[in-house]
Design goal:
Elements lengths: L3 H9 L5 E5 L2 E5 L3 E7 L2 E5 L3 H7 L4 E2 L10 E5 L5 H14 L8
Antiparallel strand pairs: 1-2, 2-3, 3-4, 4-6, 5-6
Helix pairs in contact: 1-3
């Protein structure tokens, strides 16, 4: 079971990610928003697989009408994913959010 602390730890370990509030909730930004807490126990990420994930596991992956205009945003019930799966989802969200690598 993943937690908000896991989201924070994974996000802040990625190069260039910062944390600041968004809509009164903790949020993490690469170039753009990559993750945010929607409500307690529910996080938001960006994905190219929203439709497929929600179809396979609607108890875990879903969205609200608020997200209809942003087809990459998906909500996750954190209690239904382990930390490894959360890490994979956040890595994808990081790439979609336009993460830029620091030059060597």
């Amino acid at each position: 079971m993943a937690t908000e602390d896991d989201v924070r730890r994974i996000c802040l370990a990625m190069p260039g990610v910062t944390e600041r509030p968004s809509w009164g909730q903790p949020a993490w930004f690469a170039k753009t928003l990559m993750a945010r807490m929607w409500e307690e126990g529910v996080g938001t990420v960006k994905t190219h697989e929203r439709e497929a994930l929600a179809a396979m596991r609607p108890d875990t992956f879903f969205w609200t009408p608020h997200h209809d205009q942003s087809p990459q945003l998906m909500l996750i019930r954190l209690e239904n994913v382990d930390v490894e799966e959360l890490d994979e989802l956040l890595q994808e969200s990081y790439r979609i959010a336009g993460a830029t690598r620091k030059p060597n």
